[in-house]
Amino acid sequence: MGKRKSDYRPRLRGSLKKAYDNLVKVENRVMVVGDLHCPFDLEAYFDFIVNEYEKNNCNQIIFIGDVIDSHYSSYHEVSNEADGAGRELDYAIERLKRWYKRFPDAYVTLGNHDRIILRKAMSGGVAKRWIRDFNEVLETPNWKYVTDVWIDGVRYVHGDKSGKPRMAARRDMVSTVSGHFHTDMYCEWYFGKTRAIFSLAVGCGIDSSSYAMGYMQGGKKEAIGCGIVLGGEVAFNVRMPL
Does a structural domain hold residue 73? Predict the structure, then answer.
């Protein structure tokens, strides 16, 4: 029995085949999500990340830190319009649910806002054994909360301790990806005699009109976007259309 016309598939050639081969080759294709500061994340940011993750055929995802804001416990002045500790945490957990449902297996590099409660517990003399895990509190049991992540020789870290990625990359001579600095989004390369390294600032996904971001209002515009690293060798930013 002969093949039906619908059974035949056209063969890719030339640049189309190269593009297809590049898209499906086995490698780490890492999506890096900027600071969220839930519940003060930008509403459209989630759909933007999902679209870019799928469009770039990513297979790993890293939240670069500050997934929650903890404004109620900030070391800065707290807004008079702020919700109480319990209510803000409830809202943050609710906002994280869609992220966890879509990306149940992810790394989170802990940011300074994520660690606020731990820092205050330490200041109050509370032993660490009294503190619950992030997974339990934020209802994200499979997420891996870590200080940093290394994939293909690239370091992923929040940035509040390591400094801006362009500085950290050149100082430590390792390709570095970070967030923390809401107004930064860039990719820079540095070349030596035997190797090249890059720095990638991924931007953020915050809603700067929220009361928790009052300290930013009237200042530099936040950079809304993400970062993508392919095989540890290709790195680029994607900005979210505003």
Answer: yes
Number of domains in the chain: 1
Q: Please, are residues 61 and 104 in contact by the beta-carbon 8 Å criterion?
A: no
C-alpha dihedral, 224 to 98 to 177 to 151, nearest 10°: -150
* Mean pLDDT, the chain, whole residue set: 90
| Dist. CA 181–CA 30, nearest whole Å | 20
Domain assignment of residue 65, given as a range: 37-145+204-239
Q: Contact at 8 Å (CB) between 49 and 64?
A: no
Half-sphere exposure of 57 (CA within 13 A, CB side): 12
Confidence of residue 184 (pLDDT cuts 50, 70, 90): very high
111 neighbors 66 (Cβ within 8 angstroms): yes
